Amino acid sequence: MSKPINVTRSSMPGFEEYCEEIRDLWESRWLTNMGAKHQELKKQLEEYQQVEHVTLFTNGHIALETAIEAMDFPEVSEVITTPFTFASTTHAISRNGLVPVFCDVDEDFYCMDPQKIEALITEKTVAIVPVHVYGNMCDDDAIEAIAKKHHLKVIYDAAHAFGAAYKGRSAGALGDASMFSFHATKVFNTIEGGAVCTGDGEMTRRMEDLRNFGFHTPEDGWYAGGNGKMSEFQAAMGLCNMRHLKGEIARRGAAVKRYRERLLGVPGIKLCPEQKDVTPNYAYFPVVFDGYKYDRNQVFELLKAEGIVARKYFYPLINGFACYKDLPTAGEEKTPVARHLAEHVLTLPLFADLTVEDVDRICDIILK
Ligand SMILES: *Cc1c(COP(=O)(O)O)cnc(C)c1O
Q1: Closest-lying ligand 1 atom to the alpha carbon of residue 185
Q2: Which residues pair with 170 in a beta bridge?
Q3: Whose C-alpha lies nearest to ligand 1, atom 5?
Q4: What CA–CA distance (Å, rounded) separates 216 from 214?
Q5: Sign of the torsion angle spanned by Cα atoms 243, 48, 84, 106
Q6: For residue 52, what are the CA distances in angstroms to 175, 238, 252?
Q7: Whole-number Å distance between alpha carbons of 187 and 247
Q8: How far is CA 268 from CA 193, 250, 293, 337, in A?
Q9: Does the N-terminal peptide bond of residue 13 adopt cis geometry, omega within 30 degrees of 0?
Q10: Which phi and psi angles does 286 have, rounded to 5°?
């Protein structure tokens, strides 16, 4: 059998480059707690994202949970979000004592459908948490207009969107705050890691306290905080990966171009249209099998038999999870577009090292 291909493969610098980056840590013996690497990465990301404040975390989930916590909403307030996402988005809302309200997604880009938001707003609604699914950018203009009209906060789950931009604005610059994940499988990684971008200095100050046990000063605890600090080894990986980011995104783009050449226009196979006004980061390559000679699960099995791992991402929908079944808006049937997607979508392998030959092998299996 030809070599196996996983759905993803982490971007890494050369071994020597990482060793060089962490060398000073053996002198400083400063391994975590906002050391020099942490500060340097924060500064670089503020420049790259063109935002005033970047707060670094040990993972993306804690970043999102802390961002929502720092907004200090009254308990049992409602937060409108999407069921077509990774469980982390919904859990971050729920673990803050807030009530997730599920909004359906649009048919082209699989992001929250702005036309369906207003019907879900009640007097308890305090925020919208949309997700830039697969690196497709949400319709920020429409979402911001609704948020402004109803005095709601917008906190983006931008875990998939690092390196992408909407109308020339980086993903981190949208909404009241945006969260990135720097998990090993994401376009840019710090092994595990995450960040919140915002222009709000007071919110940033609260997040900084919350991620460090709630200490405001070494002798003064203002909050019952947790531990969400990014370590120096994580930040060092980020500093290395930032040097190669542009090239890695370009190589992902080349693989996507080949996928599109092979699969676009095949009856029963649906690809996302290219987004107007968006600079893509080529995070994932979702394909919808609807009326094709093989259904989604058959394509998954065909690929698996050849050592190729695709992913039913996102399946199942979060509004069908046992832990959310008692919510007023639970139930996959209430979000029919998302439900249809979850049953028909497959994300194909995509990473910087994926060659055109690999893509051809995958497409040959799907098209045979
Ligand atoms: C990866 C991911 C997260 C969580 O990030 P971690 O860094 O793994 O904690 C949250 N939301 C979405 C959409 C993700 O893909």
Answers
A1: 1
A2: 165
A3: 60
A4: 6
A5: negative
A6: 13, 19, 29
A7: 11
A8: 38, 29, 8, 17
A9: no
A10: -80, 140
User: 223 CA to middle of ligand 1, Å?
Assistant: 25
- Report whether 289 contacts 269 (CB < 8 A): yes
Cα-to-centroid distance, 138 and ligand 1 (Å): 17
Q: What is the pLDDT of residues 211-221, one digit of tens each?
A: 999 999 989 99
- pTM greater than 0.85 (yes/no): yes
Q: What does the pLDDT look like over 327-342, one tens digit per residue?
A: 999 999 999 999 999 9
User: How many other C-beta atoms lie within 10 A of the C-beta of residue 322?
Assistant: 7
Atom of ligand 1 nearest to the CA of 63: 9
Counting from 1 in the atom list of ligand 1, the atom nearest the Cα of 59 is 7
Distance 48 CA to ligand 1 centre (A): 20
Ligand 1 atom at minimal distance to the Cα of residue 89:
11
Ligand 1 neighbours by CB, cut-off 6 Å: 59-61, 85-86, 88-89, 131, 157, 159-160, 181, 183, 194
CB 162 within 8 A of CB 180: yes
How far away, in angstroms, is 85 Cα from ligand 1 center? 9
pLDDT digits (tens, 9 = 90+) for 117-145: 999 999 999 999 999 999 999 999 999 99
The answer to whether 13 touches 224, Cβ cutoff 8 Å, is no
- CA torsion sign, 66 to 70 to 76 to 78? negative
146-179 per-position pLDDT tens digit? 999 999 999 999 999 999 999 999 999 999 999 9
Specify the DSSP class assigned to residue 311: B
Q: Does the pLDDT value for residue 1 go beyond 90? A: no
Ligand 1 pocket, mutate which of 157, 178, 314 (most atoms under 8 A from CB): 157
Model pLDDT for residues 9-25, shown as the tens digit of each residue:
999 999 999 999 999 99
Residue 183 has pLDDT above 70, yes or no: yes
